[in-house]
Specification:
The protein has strands spanning 2-7, 10-13, 18-26, 36-42, 49-54, 60-62, 70-75, 80-85, 94-101, 116-117, 121-126. It is mostly beta strands and 127 residues long. A hairpin with a 5-residue loop joins β5 and β6. The relative contact order is 0.31.
Length: 127
């Protein structure tokens, strides 16, 4: 029902910046504007972790490890999600995945588990 395609990954030195993008396509008459969207990442040998989430109203949450350095945003007109990553560190090296899902039906907050995932884009930060 939801297809996600990431781009913008690459190699950068510590302290540098990258901007990831994710284009969402929604079928069956639904719109991505009603969805929670965000970014997860996974490094080799490490657990997958939530990086940043944005809800349909623009509310956000971030992992403690990226607060103050990363900014999540979206352009509803373009059905595109962004992750601006500044002051990158070697520990940010990972495959980054775009995710999407409906908010909780009661409460309306964004979930911590997601049903829709992109293929991922690699981010490598060298020291």
């Amino acid at each position: 029902q939801v297809q996600l395609v990431e781009s913008g990954g690459g190699s950068v030195q510590a302290g540098g910046s990258l901007r990831l993008s994710c284009v969402a396509s929604v079928a069956s008459g639904y719109t991505d504007r009603t969805y929670c969207m965000g970014w997860f990442r996974q490094a080799p040998g490490k657990e997958r972790e939530e990086v940043a989430i944005i809800d349909s109203d623009g509310g956000t949450r971030y992992a403690d490890s990226v607060k103050g350095r990363f900014t999540i945003s979206k352009d509803n007109a373009k059905n595109t999600l962004y992750l601006q990553m500044n002051s990158l560190k070697p520990e940010d090296t990972a495959m980054y995945y775009c995710v999407s899902d409906r908010p909780h039906p009661r409460g309306g907050y964004c979930p911590y588990e997601y049903n829709y995932w992109g293929q991922g884009t690699q981010v490598t930060v060298s020291s």
